[in-house]
Amino acid sequence: xxxxxxxxxxxxxxxxxxxxxxxxxxxxxxxxxxxxxxxxxxxxxxxxxxxxxxxxxxxxxxxxxxxxxxxxxxxxxxxxxxxxxxxxxxxxxxxxxxxxxxxxxxxxxxxxxxxxxxxxxxxxxxxxxxxxxxxxxxxxxxxxxxxxxxxxxxxxxxxxxxxxxxxxxxxxxxxxxxxxxxxxxxxxxxxxxxxxxxxxxxxxxxxxxxxxxxxxxxxxxxx
Length: 223
What we know:
The strands form 2 sheets. The protein has a 5-stranded parallel β-sheet with strand order 2-3-1-4-7, with helices on both faces. Strands 5-6 form a two-stranded antiparallel sheet. About 45% of the residues lie in helices and about 15% in strands. The mean pLDDT is about 90. The radius of gyration is 17 Å and the shape is globular. By secondary structure, it is an alpha/beta fold. Helix 2 (about 35-45) packs across helix 3 (about 50-55) and helix 4 runs parallel beside helix 6. The protein has helices at about 15-25, 35-45, 50-55, 65-75, 80, 95-105, 115-125, 165-175, 180-185, 200-210; strands at about 5-10, 30-35, 85-90, 110-115, 125-130, 135-140, 190-195. The chain has a domain at about 5-115 and about 195-210: P-loop containing nucleotide triphosphate hydrolases (Rossmann fold, 3-Layer(aba) Sandwich), CATH 3.40.50.300.
C-alpha cells in the first residue's frame, strides 16, 4: 500500500485557497476536512460544541484552541480519515494546535499559497459570499453564474461588512502573527512547499505538479 498522504493547505483569506482546495479534491483521491465547515455545521445543528463556539463567533472572536482541538481530533480520529489520503484546511492555525495534531495524525506534506498583499486586498474587496455554506465568489476571477445568486442554492449572496482595505489588512496581519508560525513549525520538518502567484490559474498548475509527486490523479480539472 502506498504511503498515506496527509496534506495541510495554508494561505491567507483572499489567496484563492478555497478554490485550490476544491480542485485538489476533484483531481486527486483525497478526503478533505475544512475546519470552517465543521464549526458552521456544529453551530447550525446547535450541538454542545456549536453553542459554545457561537458565543465566540457571534462576537467576532476566535474559537479557543481547546474547543477547536477537541472538535478536530474527534473528527480526524474517524476511520475514513485515518485510512485515506487527507487534505486538511483551516487547522492547525497555532503552534499549540500543531502539537496536538502531531500526536494524533501527523501531516507529511504542507502546501502554502503565497499571493502578494496588494492583490489580496483588491481581490477581497470584490468578494461575495453565500453565508450559509461559506462559498465565495469574486467578480473578476470566479463570478456566480447568475449575478448576486449562489450557484448551488440560488440564494442571495452578501458582502462582508469587514471586507474593507483596512479590515483586510488587519486579517492579513493576524495570519502573519498566527498561521505563519504554524507554517514555520512544518518548515523545520522540511515538508513545506510554498507556491507563489497572482491568480489561481497561475498557482494551480504548480500545486497540481507538487501533488502528482505523491498521488496519481483520478480526474482532469481546469480552472
